[in-house]
């Protein structure tokens, strides 16, 4: 059945692609987005347009390599070449690379996965179609919802927001309920240091929309609300532009590829409905891939090359391998703060353990190099979690302030903090309070000398 689906909807997709202008084979993409703009990419864009007037220069979002910003990428047929740190001077090699002679310090060819299109196109529908957007939607548009749910189950899609619950099971429960269904898309990063949702929405908005449409088809929903909180203006603008393109082309009402009509709105608060994280929805666009590799997106900080990484979670990659990929020496890293439901500190003796979805939580990972002031980092993290708490339960009103006092003066508050940690980790009802307690409790054990000195 999976082999037949792409064939049965190929003609409408080809007609849709034929209506869009093809992207130039050779062009220079300047990485803007939140990462690039914070690093001065706007000025770099103008400098490049003046320095290389004959080149096709366009804007794109961050490709996940936040460490490289401000950066630009040469696209030449199937060849991808990134130039990093352009604020240190516009390299003459860019013009040479556009002419066909690129150095070998970085080149990418044929990447797959959720990050494959980040920073590779300008975000428009035309270029997204050229990179394979909406192919999965075209394939499943005429299939019954239960067939699509079965495909989601075969691809082992789970909640990427942190719980990693079985997506297909949740959808079957929703279908069995019989009530009118609405999809709620969590597209705002809610944990300290995590930028996964922002990268996906800014860098590949049409993958986000395609995932939403696949999910709505699966749960028989006619409405979806994308939740974007404060401070994500670029995400909002990018998504609204992509939604208008999809609407005007007939992707939302089903006239372009078939399937059900879906109204997609953008809001600031989550209404009642079936909640899915934006990364989960993006993963739906790969359910027809040949044995899709199980991966998780991570926001990695505290390393020489911070940014968003897509890592395998099939038992082949370890914590040490992840650190090495980001340019960090595992032997000079005294621990990792891993976010998510099991908020904890990963110690060096665990570095050779393979990565698992549940251990990675929502994907926020912070490395602690040797010499890091542990208590200072913990204070910052606890404060970030407290800001996301309910503000009502005792964990928020009393627990978080007491933890911050303890981290400021560990010896002075050591005895009264032990029972506090026990309450927070066992009995607190607010997620951020529980996470703060778990993290500090594990750190007190792992870095007892830091708290005793």
Could you characterize what this model shows?
This protein is α/β, with parallel strands linked by helices and 453 residues long. The protein is 43% helix and 15% strand. It is built from 20 helices and 13 strands. A five-stranded mixed β-sheet has the order 10-9-13-11-12. Helix 8 (145-154) runs antiparallel to helix 9, helix 8 crosses helix 11 (205-219) and helix 18 crosses helix 19. The mean pLDDT is 86.
CATH class of the largest domain, please? Alpha Beta
Give the structural class: alpha/beta
CATH topology term of the largest domain: Rossmann fold
For the biggest sheet, the summary is: 5 strands, mixed
* Average pLDDT number: 86
Strand content: 5-15%
What are the low-pLDDT stretches, counting only 5+ consecutive residues below 50? none
Sheet with most strands: strand arrangement:
10-9-13-11-12
Task: Work out the oligomeric state of the chains in this entry.
Answer: single chain
CATH-assigned homologous superfamily of the largest domain: NADH-ubiquinone oxidoreductase 51kDa subunit
| Number of separate strands | 13
**Shape annotation:** globular
Per CATH, which architecture of the largest domain? 3-Layer(aba) Sandwich
Overall number of structural domains: 4
What is the first-to-last residue Cα distance? 64 Å
What radius of gyration results from the CA coordinates? 23 Å
With helices defined by DSSP (H or I, 4 residues minimum), what is the helix count?
A: 20
């Amino acid at each position: 059945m999976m082999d037949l689906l792409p064939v049965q909807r190929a003609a409408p997709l080809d007609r849709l692609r034929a209506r869009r202008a093809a992207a130039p084979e050779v062009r220079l993409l300047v990485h803007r987005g939140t990462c690039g703009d914070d690093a001065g990419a706007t000025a770099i864009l103008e400098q490049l347009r003046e320095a290389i007037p004959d080149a096709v220069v366009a804007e794109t979002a961050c490709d996940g390599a936040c460490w490289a910003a401000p950066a630009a990428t040469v696209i030449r047929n199937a060849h991808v070449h990134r130039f990093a740190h352009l604020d240190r001077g516009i390299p003459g090699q860019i013009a040479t690379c556009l002419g066909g002679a690129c150095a070998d310090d970085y080149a990418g060819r044929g990447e797959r996965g959720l990050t494959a299109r980040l920073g590779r196109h300008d975000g428009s529908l035309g270029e997204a179609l050229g990179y394979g957007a909406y192919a999965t939607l075209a394939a499943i548009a005429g299939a019954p919802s239960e067939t699509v749910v079965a495909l989601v189950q075969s691809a082992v899609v789970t909640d990427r927001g942190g719980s990693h619950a079985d997506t297909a099971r949740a959808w079957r429960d929703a279908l069995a309920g019989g009530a009118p269904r609405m999809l709620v898309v969590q597209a705002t990063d809610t944990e300290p240091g995590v930028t996964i949702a922002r990268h996906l929405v800014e860098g590949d908005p049409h993958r986000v929309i395609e995932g939403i449409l696949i999910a709505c088809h699966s749960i028989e929903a006619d409405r979806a609300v994308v939740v974007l909180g404060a401070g994500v203006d670029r995400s909002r603008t990018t998504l609204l532009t992509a939604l208008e393109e999809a609407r005007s082309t007939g992707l939302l009402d089903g006239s372009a590829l078939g399937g059900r009509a879906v109204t997609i709105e953008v809001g600031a608060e989550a209404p009642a409905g079936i909640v899915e994280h934006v990364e989960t929805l993006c993963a739906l666009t790969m359910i027809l891939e040949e044995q899709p590799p199980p991966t998780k997106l991570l926001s990695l900080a505290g390393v020489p090359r911070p940014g968003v990484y897509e890592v395998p979670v099939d038992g082949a990659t370890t914590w040490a391998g992840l650190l090495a990929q980001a340019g960090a020496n595992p032997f000079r890293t005294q621990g990792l703060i891993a976010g998510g439901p099991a908020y904890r500190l990963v110690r060096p003796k665990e570095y050779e353990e393979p990565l698992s979805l549940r251990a990675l939580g929502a994907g926020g990972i912070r490395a602690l190099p040797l010499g890091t002031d542990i208590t200072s980092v913990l204070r910052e993290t606890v404060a970030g979690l407290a800001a996301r708490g309910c503000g009502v339960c005792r964990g928020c009103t009393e627990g978080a302030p007491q933890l911050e006092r303890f981290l400021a003066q560990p010896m002075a508050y050591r005895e009264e903090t032990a029972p506090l940690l026990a309450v927070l980790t066992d009995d607190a009802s607010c997620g951020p309070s529980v996470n703060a307690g778990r993290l500090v409790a594990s750190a007190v054990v792992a870095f007892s000398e830091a708290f005793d000195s």
